[in-house]
What we know:
Elements: H1 3-37, H2 43-48, E1 51-58, E2 65-67, H3 68-77, E3 81-84, E4 87-95, E5 101-115, E6 122-137, E7 143-157
Parallel strand pairs: 1-7
Antiparallel strand pairs: 1-2, 3-5, 4-5, 5-6, 6-7
Amino acid sequence: MSEDDLHARLRALEERVARLDDLEAIRRLKCEHALASDDPANLPQRFADIVTDDFVADYGEGFGVIHGKEELRAFLTNVPFTWTMHFMIPKRIDVAPDGRTATGIWYLWEPALAQDPSRTKSTALWLGAVYDEQYRKESDGSWKISALKFDAKLLVPYSEGWEKRRVAAINFDD
């Protein structure tokens, strides 16, 4: 094997290890997303710490579109969920050839508890969704979520189940 071949193999191995490191960093980033989401007292700041300054989130008809960290913090301060347990299931992560951006698709399975605005009633819920996300590597080498689209596939009261309808308005009058 020539010295040039050896250098080429070494470069290929370095690129492969860097890609594997990036995949693991994105998995850990999504883990922090779940942990932050299950920490209501610190949710606004913990979530803001893992997104880019120009972050955009499309949470769909029920929750709207959020632009930037300040809107994100305000949104997360007023969510109706008082308890959640996020199970993030990775479906696919694709790192761009330049190693600076990536995309990911995750399934969410979440039992949750939501309270009405008066804080007098709560409802246990099942929530299932798909996160379609974009990531960007920052100048310090850390990965952040730059955009996400949240597609709710299931949002129903626990007591009702999902046999008759998959996505329902949260009704606190039951």
